[in-house]
Specification:
By secondary structure, the protein is of the alpha/beta class. 47% of the residues lie in helices and 15% in strands. A hairpin with a 2-residue loop joins strand 5 and strand 6.
Length: 283
């Protein structure tokens, strides 16, 4: 029987759409053999492995006014817009505790994607235990350039996985996951364009020319991946869930009404597609 996978795109707070879908899946005991997350897909997706329904929305709501969690003050003080130590090591161990034991006991594989700042290539890493280093891998996957410092683990220095591989369906297929649900945070028909921030990238990322190069070509990579996903869906090898329209929230928005609305949109998409998802992974 083919292994089933769940592929989670990033997108900052657009990821609350994904969180809504994941909560519906957890409530209905839908499981997969593996999950791969990129950026917010990693930071929010780990809660699917620990089976903590509602945790993603809850901690984002409770921490949205805390300057240690996210914001300009954190960027000025620590070099990270999302507080590296606070968000990834204080919050999950003391304030809204991550269920480390449940994560480790869950047989579902959890993979994350990061980008090597020296080469611009994707690094794929399986996390079996969310200890300090495991959480640093998740942080690296979501460390957006310009507003984050590279995360160093072993011989690697890494930034956001979406720079090198935004929707890693090919990777998961190569790992043996042949029946995949792909959750996107952009609507059907979306095509990425060259970022208008290229002058900023060139000015602020001069130490990392591979990242500048990656960002200059990211739209091409992303659109190729969308084309491949479409081909696989037409062949019956994956099922794509995406918003019906552009999500009304920015990457770093902490507006409570918008956060709740995007999460609710995800819940509705999860409920509307629940039977199709069950049927797909059972075939």
């Amino acid at each position: 029987m083919a292994k089933t996978g769940l592929v989670l795109e990033g997108g900052g707070m657009r990821g609350l759409f994904t969180a809504g879908i994941l909560d519906v899946l957890m409530e209905n005991n839908v499981t997969f053999d593996g999950v791969v997350g990129v950026s917010a897909g990693a930071t929010f997706g780990c809660n699917f492995i620990s089976h903590q329904i509602g945790r993603t929305l809850r901690y984002n709501m409770s921490q949205r006014k805390n300057p240690k969690y996210m914001g300009i003050r954190s960027l000025i003080k620590t070099g990270d817009y999302v507080g590296g130590e606070y968000a990834y090591h204080v919050l999950p161990t003391k304030l809204d505790v991550f269920d480390f034991e449940a994560f480790e006991k869950n047989p579902t594989e959890f993979h994350v994607v990061t980008t090597n700042v020296r080469t611009g290539e994707a690094i794929y890493h399986r996390i079996d235990k969310v200890d300090y280093t495991g959480m640093e891998w998740i942080r690296a996957s979501a460390s957006m350039p310009i507003i984050s410092r590279p995360v160093a683990i072993g011989d690697y220095e890494m930034l956001d996985g979406g720079i090198a591989d935004s929707i890693p369906l090919r990777y998961f297929e190569s790992e043996g996951f042949k029946r995949n649900i792909v959750i996107l945070t952009q609507p059907k028909g979306f095509k990425k364009k060259l970022t208008k921030l290229m002058p900023v990238f060139k000015a602020t990322m001069r130490k990392y020319p591979a990242i500048i190069e990656g960002m200059s070509k990211r739209h091409l990579m992303y659109n190729r991946e969308l084309d491949y996903i479409s081909q696989q869906q037409m062949a019956g090898k994956c099922l794509v869930i995406c918003p019906s329209d552009t999500l009304p929230i920015g990457r770093t928005s902490l507006n409570a009404k918008k956060m709740q609305h995007v999460y609710d949109m995800g819940r509705k998409a999860g409920e509307d597609n629940l039977e199709a998802i069950k049927k797909f992974i059972e075939e």
